[in-house]
Please model this.
Amino acid sequence: MPMAELKEQAITLCNDLDLPLVSDDDNNYDFILKLSHNHLEVKPTGEPSISKGLWVDFVHGAARHRRLHGGRNMLPKAVGVKKNRRPLVMDATAGLGRDGFLLATSGCEVLMFERHPIVAALLADGLKRAKQHPDTKTIASRITLRTESALGYLTNISEQETRPEVIYLDPMFPPRSKSAKVKKELQILQLLVGEDLDTIRLLDLALTAAVERVVVKRPKNEPPLGDEPPSFSMSGKTTRFDIYLTANRYRRC
Ligand SMILES: C[S@@+](CC[C@H](N)C(=O)[O-])C[C@H]1O[C@@H](n2cnc3c(N)ncnc32)[C@H](O)[C@@H]1O
Model:
């Protein structure tokens, strides 16, 4: 891509996100969002321990491995994916889109919501590249991203054209003391997004909106979100999925 076109894109992005256009050696900011020929990445400037930036790549590296060998991941099972059944999933807390992409890889249509504009910009950039690559374009075509809070959509669920069969929640939690070695990527996400403080409301709305089930990702040894016990859970080494079956109670309005 010619340099002038790249700069044009950077200016559009700055306007969309209401950010100043600076050079990448400008240290006056906590984070720098950098657009290159390869990708869009974010990097905290004041964290010397974090040398690499964060970007979304669904095509290569770990993502490729997950795509080819993701069969061991419990998430599709927790969501109810079967040979002849691929539910429509609302990923209400899309983040960097890994879980959502995994569900799209297993054949689900996924409606992603990400409310943090910078995280959503990284995700949109990763999805754009995934849509252009022959190995990932079919999977990425099953994904729709909305840069807004899922709370608004769920509050007005009766006005929506389609109801998600499954709603998936994986909110941010404060780092636990024992997990000081959180991965660099999660560290950046935590610095950028902080803690999600309205998760109980999100769960309450999801429970009345999902046609079939709500799936909540939790650290394995933490209690369930909210007061209501899940219908059942599936546990892995460090993660647990709490599953709330909703078929008997969702709002048919
Ligand atoms: C832990 S991350 C999700 C990681 C994601 N499951 C993945 O695989 O990359 C949580 C994300 O949910 C987003 N989030 C939290 N509440 C939200 C809401 N009500 N609507 C949209 N996004 C939300 C946060 O901004 C954050 O980026």
